[in-house]
Amino acid sequence: MINLYIISGMSGAGKSQVLKIFEDFGFVCVDNMPVQMVSDFAGICINNPDKYRHVAISIDSRAGKSLESFTGLLAVLKNKKISYKVLFFNASDAVLLRRYSETRRRHPLGQSVPVGIKLERKIINKIFMLADEVIDTSNLTIGELKKLISIFTGTRHFGKRYLNISVISFGYKYGLPNDADIVYDVRFITNPNYVHNLKFQTGRDKAVKEYIEKQKEFAPFFNLFSKLINITLMGYINEGKSYLTIAVGCTGGRHRSVFTAEKLVKFLKSKKYKVKLNHRDILQDRVNALR
Question: Rounded to two decimals, what is the model's pTM?
Answer without folding.
Answer: 0.65
